Amino acid sequence: MLGRTANGLYWMFRYIERAENIARLIDAGLRMALTRSGATDGDWDGVLQSAGMQQAFLEEYEAVTDSDAVDFMLRSRNNPSSVMSCIEAARNNARMVRTALTRETWEATNEFWIDLKQLLARKVRPQDMPSVIETIKRRAGLVRGAFHGTMLRNEIYNFSRIGTFIERADNTSRILDVKYYVLLPSVSHVGSSLDNIQWESILRSVSAHRAYGWVYDAVYNPANIADFLILNGQMPRSLHYCYDKIVANLAYLEREYKQRLDAHDTAEATLKLLEKGSIKDVMDQGLHEFLEDFIGHNNRLGMQISEGYRFY
Amino acid sequence: MLNAGADPRPPYRSYHEWYAAQDPANLIAKSRDAENIFRKTGITFNVYGHEDQSEKLIPFDIIPRIISAREWRKLAQGIEQRVIALNAFLDDIYHKQEIVKAGRVPRALIEKNPTFLPEMIGMRPPGGVYTHIVGTDIVRTGEDQFYVLEDNARTPSGVSYMLENRETMMQMFPELFYANKVRPVEDYPYQLRQSLQELAPPGCKGKPRVAVLTPGIYNSAYYEHSFLADQMGVELVEGSDLRVIDGKVCMRTTLGYQAIDVLYRRVDDDFLDPLTFRPDSALGIPGIMDVYRAGNITIANAPGTGICDDKAIYSYMPEIVEFYTGRKAMLENVPTWRCSEEDSLKYVLEHIDELVVKEVHGSGGYGMLVGPTATKKERLDFAEKLKAKPANYIAQPTLSLSTVPILVKNGVAPRHVDLRPYVLVSKTVKIIPGGLTRVALKEGSLVVNSSQGGGTKDTWVLED
What we know:
With 312 residues, chain A is mostly helical. Chain A is built from 16 helices and no strands. Chain A is globular. In chain B, strand 1 (44-46) and strand 2 form a beta hairpin.
């Protein structure tokens, strides 16, 4: 396979994953605004931060308002991580690697883009927002479905999956890092409704507020939330789960190519940490420090993969 | 479709019967379905200079253009003769130039031609084939009357539309293919791959590795490049993927560099090798021409074949065909005035309102004047350009082209078309029975180019 093709697949799936996560963050933000009497624009500040867009936003706007924030995250061409920009980039990558994709996967991606271009041609009215978010999630689901249903389980599949999970691990850790202080044990706030809403919004940003109840307890508990998103191997957006998948896909490549790279060591070391660690260790090290470390390692892994497999 | 007496012409008989039984509203709906299929599949082309809508669909007309077996046979013989002559001509002008010595084609027209590549002098590609893939543009003026409009021996495009048009028609109207014996075109990608592999360099051991070279996703024909690579099952590469290593052209894979034997390039000559041609080209591969000259890669089509697309060369095609095949050309040229010749220029300027004037190096319908439909100002402006650089132009009469029906709101209406059959040259010459029919959608218009608002149709060649 061409190195450029591996690169294109990796980024195509990173961008699709990112678009979906941004849509989920917007959803959580909208939800938060609805569940609070007199929602403040300060909430959107946090959402922009979770999306890693706060700085870019403030370069364009003076202050954060909910309608500007949503528009920036959804449609802005100046924002390389807006849903529209992500899908545009995903489709461009898909066109570049068209020969590596099944017709179904390509068409699902192309239709995602066609749909979105139409939906996001103008600023979305608040009353239309739920259906727009729904469309984005559904379209992303269709790409995923076509991909899983039709693609050969070979190197093409592996590079796509690796892209998906590197991006997802990055997104989940950033969401946690932005809100890490909410999860710190503190005497004064515990159990207040403010905390409950914040915690719920974290879980919602990763579509996990219902699952949490099944796995833990109906009561939100910061250590459990952190455990769920970092260490729980069953939770599909947790760091542990992402690294399970990354390691498995890298292992396929190792067998197929009969070649072991630095990336294999890095990924396996990170996975071991997530498998063996307890949430107490994480909290003792400091949640923020832990996440910062993790994000750094995750980036390094991405670089090692792109070098090792000659993306450029 | 119809004779003068409103009877369907023989090849259209069965189709016409079917058509007469259709509900017009249903056909219009089908026509929209077809458009959706194309949009969904991403069969688009990029129009340069349109920032906003950079991807367009080529309008597709659902009424097929039908050619009888007898007419096709005649056409195919003529095309084969012409393609053989083109390759012989290319071999000659890059070697002994017998045709110049014989005084049949002026020396200046070849050696001063910007599409003539001195780098190719003395170079004989593997198998002696210069132009592997040819698209010959044909117009029909009446029963058994065909003219060649131009030759595309450099990088003819549009073959993906031939294939997708057929695919779409078979999806939408399967019943038509039971009732009509239409010769298949579907195996074009397979034939293309085979004929490319057949002409691998002599030193190539094992199964030749083929790749398609594209300028990238922003190129107007990118869809076709990816389509062909996908259908052939070969890599689609860009210049940045390739590098010359140990005298071979190699592509960068996830496991390191791998040699390529045959490159079907869809990049222009100028951009192919920055060491030999344009030094600023980022699309090409530094050093590929050295590998080529050393006989370690086949480039299809060969560099320097573009000279056959030149419209001044075209005007000599009857002589060229006769010179190399020893027989009169079976397919006629459209009569052509070379504006470089004083008498012709005078004639063209006097009759500019009746003629089509074209740039000799132009393509895609750009830089031409259709006299009869142009405004007075357009004609005057063009006459100035003509006088300033006469050798840059040729002129042709507007033929009374035959028309074919297209679907319009109130049924069918006649429109002008041309036809581009595709020819593959390896050790043998294969002509795909069909081709791309381009149709001028505007009433009365003669310009069929997609960049100028033309559409396409499926083209049926019937079995006997």
